[in-house]
Amino acid sequence: MSNIFFTADLHFNHAKVIQFESTIRNFESIEEHDEALIRNWNSVVRPRDKVWVLGDVFLGKDEEHFFDIMRKLHGSKSLILGNHDTFPIETYAKAFDSIHGVWPKYGFVMSHVPLHPDSVERWNWNVHGHLHSKKVKYPWKQYVLYDDGREDITLPDPHYYCVSVEHHNLAPVSLDTIRKAIHQT
C-alpha cells in the first residue's frame, strides 16, 4: 500500500531562501540545504508513495540540475504550480505525473497561494504553501485581558493548512496527518 504526502516551498537551488528562513533553514550553503531536503524527503517517502508538491520546487534556469534533484526524490510526484515555478510546462511534465493550478481532491482544495476565504468555503479546507513559516490568520484580533493591560492575539484560521517545509521539519507531511489536523477544527 502506498501513502500520500504533501509539501511546498522546497526552493531547491535558491540560495537566498537560507537567508529568508535562516532560523529553520540553517545551512551553510545551498548544496547543503538541497541535500538535507532530499534526505528528509526520502526518509518519509518510499518509492511507491505519491507526493503532491504545492509549488516553488526549484529556482533558476538549469534544467539538468532540476532533473538531477527530481530523480533523487522518492515517489511519484504531482505539481500544483507556484509563483516561482517558471520552467515551461513541458519541463515539469518530464518530472511530474500531473500539473495543476488549483486542484480539489481528498476532501479539500490544494493551491500554492492560500485561496480567498470565499473560495475555501466551498471545500471547507485549503491545503497550501507559499507562506513558508507563516500561517493564514483570522482577519480579526482577539484580546486577552491581563492585570497590566490587554494583549492582541491573532489566531490561525483552521480552514487553512500550510504544507510549506518550514512547518514540517523540512519534509513532506502525510495525508493522514493533514486529515487529523483539519478534522479537529
**Helicity, in percent?**
25-40%
| CATH fold field value | Purple Acid Phosphatase, chain A, domain 2
Q: What is the name of the CATH superfamily?
A: Metallo-dependent phosphatases
> Strands of the biggest beta sheet: in what spatial order?
4-3-2-1-11
The unreliable regions are: none
Percentage of residues in DSSP E strands: 15-25%
Number of helices: 6
Number of domains in the coordinates? 1
Question: Can you walk me through this structure?
Answer:
It is a single chain. This protein is an alpha/beta fold and 185 residues long. It has a single domain, classed as Purple Acid Phosphatase, chain A, domain 2 (4-Layer Sandwich). Helices cover 26% and strands 22% of the residues. It contains six helices and eleven strands. A five-stranded mixed beta sheet has the order 4-3-2-1-11. A four-stranded mixed beta sheet has the order 5-6-7-10, covered by helices on one side. Strands 8-9 form a two-stranded antiparallel ribbon. Strand 3, helix 4 and strand 4 form a beta-alpha-beta unit. The longest helix is centred in the N-terminal third of the chain and has 15 residues. The chain is globular. The chain starts with a strand and ends with a helix. The mean pLDDT is 92.
